[in-house]
Amino acid sequence: MGWTMRQLTEDVIQRVYKIPVNDALLLGIFSSQGWYKWIVAAQFDTPHQYSLVEKCIRDEFYARSTTCFSEILMDTPKQIDVFLTQYDIVTLTFFSDGQPVTNDNQREEKLTLEAGQALASLVTSGAVVAYGEYCNRALLSRLASTLGVEFLSTDAVRDIGETFERSTQRAPRRRKKVQMPS
Which of 26, 56, 70, 178 is most buried when burial is the number of CB atoms within 10 A of its CB? Predict the structure, then answer.
């Protein structure tokens, strides 16, 4: 992913500045087994917040190591519950140029799809985006299907920004409100 990070960073930052005031962004990054990080959890109330988010993205977006999808996907419902409960629309865009590289890749694929299933009811729109020649398009396509979002694929770095833009502009479905018994 190192070869795409500069372009992806600029594309994400450009789109951050298009997020309307009072909307929120939850942004996570992931790498090898045991390593993922939520780098942004922000509601945009003031113009200053956009530049703080930009700095955070510039500081944190860089290629690290191998790839593990399941852990960040398993943690995403908790993050949505903590940071996005007041929003009716939750758009998920999941990017990868890789494929799982863990101690047990078959187990990782199973856990990834199970995590997608657990997350599906919380996501109202979005896309799973595969890019580059190395990515596991079959797994990422199944993940998109499991989540109920669009699967997008691109080989060109220059297309990542456009692909990201399309994934966030789709007409969202309404989030299901679930009343929990007390």
Answer: 70
CA–CA dist 93, 157 (Å, integer)? 16
- Predicted confidence at residue 181, as pLDDT, reads 43
Q: Which residues contact 166 (CB under 8 A, 6 or more apart)?
A: 127, 152
Confidence check: pLDDT of 165 > 70:
no
Reported as half-sphere exposure (CB side, CA atoms, 13 A), residue 158 has a value of 0
What are residue 113's phi and psi, to 5 degrees?
-70, -35
Least-confidence region, from 5-19, 77-91, 135-149: 5-19
pTM, two decimals, is 0.76
Helix (H) or strand (E) holding 36, with range, is: strand 36-43
Integer Cα distance of 12 and 5 in angstroms: 10
The values of phi and psi at residue 41, to 5°, are -140, 95
Pairing between strand 125-131 and 91-96? parallel
* DSSP, residue by residue, 122-174: T--EEEEEEESSSS-HHHHHHHHHHHT-EEEEES-GGGHHHHHHHHHHSPPPP
Whole-number percent of the chain with pLDDT over 90 = 21
Mean pLDDT of 67-90: 87
